[in-house]
């Protein structure tokens, strides 16, 4: 699960749908009515109040034109997303990682070129988007994103994905390359291989699992904490069903089949998914690796400006 950085203001929530406007719209001064017995307010105060009202509406209209936060229904799922610079034709679509939402990516979108349309999506089961039916795996998430982009009639766009979002992005590129200009993989969870130590722990857990039938219903899950990541222990019931599938969805053998230009961004101190950037760059055709030294897995939180600079370079390169 991601922890919001201290320098980011908490967004305003209305009916649990995050609104990015709170990052931009300044507080306005509202002229208070004169206390009883003191008569009408002076003309100068009335004029100032009306001027502030005009400025407030003008600023709001300006930012609403730049950023549109809205909901739509995709394959029966109420979907929350933000559409920044919607009048621009060149488009970047960003998919967040596990346990995240579009709120964590608003600061990055602020630093991207204003000549680019940036679309942020709350993936199903995260943020303010409803869950997918059944027990979905990566392909179901990929098909959901495809349906979303088709509904918005997006073509020749750059698809950006972080971690779990990167796994979906790579899967999308393998299945629907005709939709894409290129892809950007930010520390993607594309190769799913367990170490021998983890495999041993899992085997041991399966052997002793019957012993936990006498404990409270959550006793076994507490025991799992000694080898399972926080991603699992912090997930809700729906997310636990999803994570049980995506952790074994391995795209390693398909890397050579990627047919779209690919840019890979990795943090040198990423210990969540370590040492995979170089391998991906060596095995994905027409790919380029960018390393942000000192960055961990959550590059968009720890090295925001460096990440934005790289993505802007990629955009300028891909949209010649």
Automatic annotation (TrEMBL):
Instruction: Output the superkingdom of the source species.
Output: Bacteria
Q: Which residues form the AB hydrolase-1 domain?
A: 91-191
- Tell me the protein's name: AB hydrolase-1 domain-containing protein
Species whose genome carries this gene: Candidatus Collierbacteria bacterium GW2011_GWB2_45_17
- One short Pfam name that applies is Abhydrolase_1
The record's annotation in InterPro entries points to: AB_hydrolase_1 (IPR000073), AB_hydrolase_fold (IPR029058), AB_hydrolase_sf (IPR050266)
Assigned GO CC terms: membrane
């Amino acid at each position: 699960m991601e922890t919001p950085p201290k320098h980011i203001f908490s967004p305003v929530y209305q009916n649990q749908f995050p609104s990015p406007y709170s990052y931009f719209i300044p507080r306005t001064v509202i002229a208070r009515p004169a206390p009883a017995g003191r008569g009408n307010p002076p003309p100068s105060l009335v004029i100032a109040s009306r001027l502030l009202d005009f400025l407030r509406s003008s600023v709001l209209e300006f930012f609403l034109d730049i950023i549109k936060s809205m909901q739509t229904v995709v394959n029966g799922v109420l979907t929350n997303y933000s559409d920044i610079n919607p009048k621009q034709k060149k488009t970047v679509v960003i998919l967040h990682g596990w346990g995240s939402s579009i709120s964590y990516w608003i600061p990055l979108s602020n630093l991207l070129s204003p000549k680019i349309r940036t679309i942020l999506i709350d993936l199903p089961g995260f943020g303010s988007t409803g869950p997918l039916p059944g027990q979905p795996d990566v392909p179901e998430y990929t098909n959901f994103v495809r349906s979303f982009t088709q509904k918005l009639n997006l073509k020749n766009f750059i698809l950006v994905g972080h971690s779990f979002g990167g796994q979906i992005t790579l899967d999308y590129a393998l299945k629907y390359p005709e939709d894409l200009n290129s892809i950007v993989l930010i520390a993607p969870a594309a190769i799913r291989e367990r170490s021998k130590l983890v495999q041993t722990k899992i085997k041991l857990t399966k052997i002793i699992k019957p012993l936990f039938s006498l404990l409270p219903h959550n006793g076994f899950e507490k025991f799992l904490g000694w080898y399972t990541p926080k991603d699992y222990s912090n997930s809700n019931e729906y997310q636990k069903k999803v994570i049980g599938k995506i952790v074994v969805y391995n795209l390693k053998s398909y890397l050579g089949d990627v047919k779209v230009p690919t840019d890979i961004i990795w943090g040198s101190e990423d210990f969540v998914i370590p040492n995979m950037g170089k391998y991906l760059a060596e095995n994905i055709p027409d790919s380029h690796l960018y390393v942000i030294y000192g960055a961990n897995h959550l590059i968009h939180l720890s090295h925001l400006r460096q990440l934005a600079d790289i993505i802007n370079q990629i955009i300028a390169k891909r949209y010649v």
